[in-house]
Amino acid sequence: MKIKGSLEQAVCILLVIAHTKGHAPVKSYTLSERLGLSDSYLKKIMRQLVVAGLVDSEAGKKGGFVLKRAPKNISLLDVFEAIESTAPFLSTTNLVDKVFPKEKMIAHEKEQQIISVFTRAEQAYRQSLSQFTLDHVVAEDLPDS
């Protein structure tokens, strides 16, 4: 499994917003400049974060992006699912039926064993991500940067 680079970028975007003094809205161009991302690419990521309910977009001259939830209530799983999706890691095509063409029962049993291993691995992965929140890496007294 390869994780998209936009996942790292999404986490960093959320951290920049979380560190903003007075929780003031952060403009997209400010985020783009700070992180070295193109404005169009950043807006694509921001759209995913808005749809996932992790950030709000405030319109107007003083608008920008703000966290919709406190950092302690945003887990890495939330960010992962916003960027990567909530779909299961494994989807099968019943190809194993071609391995055991005359033994459909055996094919189904073997496929279920494989699915079970991947499902347990995915559950452990998601559980681990759910335990780590942005609050774990938000610095209380971050110097101006």
UniProtKB/TrEMBL annotation:
Where does it sit, as one GO cellular component term? cytosol
Query: Single GO molecular-function term?
Result: DNA-binding transcription factor activity
Pfam families reported for this sequence: Rrf2
Q: Which InterPro entries match?
A: TR_Rrf2-type_CS, Tscrpt_reg_Rrf2, WH-like_DNA-bd_sf, WH_DNA-bd_sf
- Report the superkingdom from the record: Bacteria
Gene3D superfamilies per the UniProt record, alphabetical: Winged helix-like DNA-binding domain superfamily/Winged helix DNA-binding domain
Alphabetical list of PANTHER family matching this protein: RRF2 FAMILY PROTEIN (PTHR33221:SF9), WINGED HELIX-TURN-HELIX TRANSCRIPTIONAL REGULATOR, RRF2 FAMILY (PTHR33221)
User: What name has this protein been given in UniProt?
Assistant: Transcriptional regulator, Rrf2 family
